[in-house]
Amino acid sequence: MRITGDGTTGGTPVRSDTGPYPLHGGAVGSARRQPESTPVQPVGVDPAPEEIGYRGPTACAAAGITYRQLDYWARTGLVEPSVRAAYGSGTQRLYSFRDVVVLKIVKRFLDTGVALQNIRTAVQHLHDRELADLERMTLMSDGATVYECTSPDQVVSLLQGGQGVFGIAVGVVWRDVESALAQLHGERVDTGETLVGHNPTDELAARRNRAG
């Protein structure tokens, strides 16, 4: 799917195994995932990533942003907390592991001058993909368009275009955030229990190993 400055393209994008996949605002927005209910975990079993929330200061520390940025992005709808929004005074926003990864990616895009409309569509795309898909994804931008690349050949194809391209390996950002959150506090969504130094993707890795 392709992102341009005004969120439009001249044609319908088609996923290809030989070239990068341009992101497009309209197509992404129509496929937003619905939040899933939180299953009850047996006593003594570590919570899954989607059952852990991170408060604003923790999300800021892991994403490398200021609280002012976090607050502004939440209020303008750029990156909203998917676990729990703030309702009046005394309530705390709770961000998911995916949210924190997205926060860090948004900062990198903004630092390189990518258009805000393109960033908004990339954020939507990241939220629509399965969590495990993010590890294998590379987002690249020439300033006017953001592309999803899922193979080295697609990255090379884009680089051969000759224009200046900025790339973000989402898997690298994932691991940076994972490492940072492992040193910080999380919170169980169902009980509010504080989790000290919990690795947010331990359960995800265990699931992949069991599936293999």
TrEMBL record:
Residues 1-51 are annotated as: Disordered. InterPro entries: DNA-bd_dom_put_sf (IPR009061), MerR-type_HTH_dom (IPR000551), MerR_fam (IPR047057). Transmembrane segments: none annotated. Keywords: DNA-binding. Residues 62-125 form the HTH merR-type domain. The keyword Iron-sulfur does not apply. PANTHER family: HTH MERR-TYPE DOMAIN-CONTAINING PROTEIN, REDOX-CYCLING DRUG-SENSING TRANSCRIPTIONAL ACTIVATOR SOXR. This is HTH-type transcriptional regulator. It comes from Streptomyces virginiae (Streptomyces cinnamonensis).
